[in-house]
Every structure is written in structure tokens, then in C-alpha cells.
Amino acid sequence: MGITVSNKQISTAAIECGGSFSVTLSLSAEPDIVSNPTDIVLVLDRSGSMAGSPLANLKNGAKAFIDIIAESTGGTQSGNIGYGSRIGIVSFSDVATQDTQLITSVSALDSAVNALSAGGYTNHADAFTKAIGLFDPQSTSAKVIVMFTDGKTTTGPDAAPIAALAKAQGAVIYCIGLVESGGLDEDALNDWASDPDSAYVAITPDDEELESLFSDLAKNIVNPGATNITIEERINPCFKISGVSAPSKGTATVTGQSELTWQIDELGVTQSEGATLTFSVQHLGVCSGSIEVNEELTYSDDEGNVVSFPSPVITVDCGLIVLPEDCPTPIEVAIKGCSDSIEFDAGELEMQSLGRILQLSVTINNVCPNRRVALAAILTELDAQDDEHPRGTKTVLIPAHTSSQCRDVTVRCLKFVLPESLDVSGGSTSAICNQRRLRARFIAHYVDTDYQCCNLD
Question: Could you check whether the bond before residue 196 is cis, i.e. omega within 30 degrees of 0?
């Protein structure tokens, strides 16, 4: 069947500046379906949350899956899946139904899929029970269950023991999850699926991707197991690889600060197999915000399997920075010809920068979440007798942050204009190179508080 699942996961969604996290690469592979007949049960969620485009896209995905299996087993002309493989349809809401037995007719399978309608609750336990019931215990064919769902179990018993029974009886379980409705239990999918979880579980937030997920799984199922696998990983230069654990299969070699190579001689050639590689990554403190972990990842094997890995994004928090003032908008000036003197009308200019410009930055410590802060900056200039002369006041409102704890907030580039005509240092007011002594004061307090006057009544 070739590479059936490829996945890339990170251990956390966010880190502090300079922090670390782990990355896990996963693969699963199956033997050739032509020489290894396989019974496949598509277990399809038709609960009420699937109404509309999710169910329509699920149907397209399931039918694409069936067509690819049929085509790859020589069934295009006859309309039947060949070489001893079969597909069955189980659908579920409050209860599950065996919409077909394990059959080879493409038209009958498509009709069963087309007949699905959404409604009711979600009973995963009955879905697995009905799927197991389709398999012939005496058959030597490989057994595969492809479970699709978009929600948590809302009726019926716990499905985990029944999924475990299916795996104990030799079935390989793939789980496809849709998080679009917001109710998916990803931990349950990981529990139900074959191990490693990351190689047998695929999750999408967009129902429009369902057709491609089913199609990619079918395309890889029909290929033979993979040999001479090479995966070359290069992570974003904002990070470095700080350590590599021994992979479950093959060997992994770090080839640079942000590069590694994973090689596997063979996977899934004689039986269903999964392989994982985990490595540690440290932030270098160069970038912050939402950062894509991958820079580049390439896959190759002797069978030409088409494999793509997701590219997870991690949030790096290097503190909060506020820029209350924008830089002046530039004016485009075009100079043409060879004239020695050119006039250009720059338009109107508001009074902003009439001399040297001082840009002050200050960090306000331990600002609590969800509270705005009022900040004032007062600037004075000292003359030769250390008397102070006012040079300006700035007041700004710092937006509230939503971190889980108090954070330092850096306010940058508070701009003060210092006309040379106001120079009190004792030097010439016509020069701009005099040393000028300034003094800055800052006042900050919360705007938002929970204070209320005591009720003395």
C-alpha cells in the first residue's frame, strides 16, 4: 500500500523567547494491495453537525477513495474492485448501520455513500462494533478501518475498548478528524488509531480538505511498502536542533545547526508498520511572533511514493513591544534631467520635527492582563546652573495585553523635537553639535481597575 500517512507535530503551541520544544516526524506504510488483498471498512460520521458542506465534502472524499482503490486494482472497465480486495460502508449517528457488506461493486458503494443524510447524536462505539462485524474472522485478507468523525461521543458507551478489540483482531485503524464544528476529541482519535498515533491520525479544520485527505490515503494504500526512504529536514533559521532521539526505525543524523537526515531501509513491505523520529529544537532569540517551524522538508523512496508533511506554526513570545507613534510618512521625489537646480513642492507639513529628535523607550514592569496603562513622559533640559527648562510632555495609552500572567511591556520611540534655538547649554544656538543635557521622568498607572468606593450605608 505504500506510505499511508505522513505527519509532523510539535509538542507545544507556544514558547518563551529562547525556549525549547520537540518535533515528531511520523510515517506509516502498508504492503502492496494487489499482492496483498485488503478488506477496507469506511466508517463515516453522519451526525447532525455534519449537515451542509461537511457531509457533501465527506461524500466526495469517500467516493474518490473508492474510485482510486478500484482503478488501482484493475476495476476501471468492469466497475469492480479487483485482486480480492473489498470495501464496506458503515455510517453512524445515534446508532450505526452497515450500509453495505464488504463488496467490490463501485456503483453500489457510491450509492450507499450518496444516500447518507445528517442528523442525530454521535455513537462511536456502535460504529466500531458494526465495522468489526463486517470482517470475516476466517479471511486471510488484511483488515483496515478508516474512521471519519467531526465530534465527541455524545451517546453510547466508551468506544476505546471496541477499537482496541479491532486492533487485537488484526485490524489497522486510521482516523480522520474534522475540527470545523469545534467538538472533536483529538485524544480519543489518538487512542482509537493504530500506533504511533501521529502516523495514523489526520486532522483538518476545513471540510473542503476532506476529499484530498481521503484521496491521498487511497493513493498511498494502493502503492507497495516503501524502501530506501530518505527524509531531509531543514528547520527555520530562527531555531536550532539541540538533540535527536533514536528513531523507532532507521537512523537519524544531524547535518547542520538546523538540518538533519532520516533514513529507513524499508517500511511496510511485509506488514503494516509505523515509524517515528523525535528531535529537540531551541529558539535562537532572533525572531518572535508566529513562526513556521519548517524551512524545507523533502522525501524520497525507491517506489516514488507521493508524501507531504504538514508545516506546524509555533508562537514565540519575546515580550510585548508597543509603538505608540508612527514614523513620518516619506514623500517621493523624482529627479529627472541634468539641471543643476531643481524645485519640488513637498506639499503641506505639520509641525513635528524642527530640530534634533530624541526617541525615548521605557519598559513598564509587571503589567497585569486585561488592564490598559496610561503613560506620561516629561522631558526637561538642564542649563549650566542645573536649572530645568521644560521641553515637552507626552501621554499615551498602552493597550491591554491578554497573556495569562503579568508581563513587562516595552514602549518604544516616544519622539521629542529639540529645536536648537532652545539650547540652554551655553553654546552657540546656530550649531547642532552642542552637548545638551536632558532629564526624563515617567509616570504610569492603570486605567482599568476593579476599585469601588466602600458602601457606608
Answer: yes
Per-residue burial over 385-420, b = 16 or more CB atoms within 10 Å of its CB, e = otherwise:
eeeeeebeebeeebebbeeeeebebebeebbbebeb
Domain final position from 263, 293, 317: 317
pTM higher than 0.70: no
> How many angstroms from the chain centroid is the CA of residue 226?
27
Question: Which residue among 298, 317, 336 closes a domain?
Answer: 317
Residue 361: which domain range?
A: 321-326+353-446
Q: Are 2 and 305 in contact (CB under 8 A)?
A: yes
Tell me: the pLDDT tens digits for 69-83?
888 777 777 889 988
Answer yes or no: is pLDDT of 414 > 80: yes
Kindly report the backbone phi and psi dihedral angles of residue 109, in degrees, each rounded to the nearest multiple of 5, phi listed first: -65, -45
Q: What is the pLDDT of residues 111-134, one digit of tens each?
A: 999 999 999 999 999 999 999 999
Residue 8: beta bridge partners?
A: 25
In this structure, the answer to whether residues 261 and 175 fall within a common structural domain is yes
Those residues whose C-beta lies under 8 Å from the C-beta of residue 241, and which sit 6 or more positions away, are: 235, 254, 257, 258, 259, 260, 279, 280, 281
Q: How far is it, in rounded angstroms, from Cα 279 to Cα 37?
A: 37
